[in-house]
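Hi C.,

You asked whether I'd gotten around to modeling the 134-residue construct. I have! Everything is below, sequence then structure, no commentary in between.
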Amino acid sequence: MDFIYLPNYHADIGGDILLSDIIYRHNNNELARYVAKLSVDFIVASLAYQYKLGFPTSFVIDRFTNTLISWFNNNYLQDTYTGAWMWKAWSNYENVYVIYVTLVDYSDGTYTKPIKVQTLEIGMEYGTTVEYYY
């Protein structure tokens, strides 16, 4: 496992402790793309049938909707690359370890260029007792 620099929340006490392995996931959104295309195709076919549109009109509508779907897929249903891990840091204020989860969205499959980082406090560790909020 490669060393990861965690947010150094309480450096004066010695830094942070990684509690889990880093989980990397790739989601290609293939099913969402397919459902979007199928839905639009169904709507176009229903309109063409209901209004008895001929070949030229339905062909133009089909080309337009395919262009719209491609634009939507490229802008909103791109592949996603995420990483997640759990860690804890000592809190001088509460005199306990505070447990966090970090979720990172990456720009590509190399998992080296973060786009967005989210950290959520999920619990506390009191000696041998761990209390989770959720």
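If it helps when you're writing up: The first helix runs from residue 30 to 50.

Thanks,
B.
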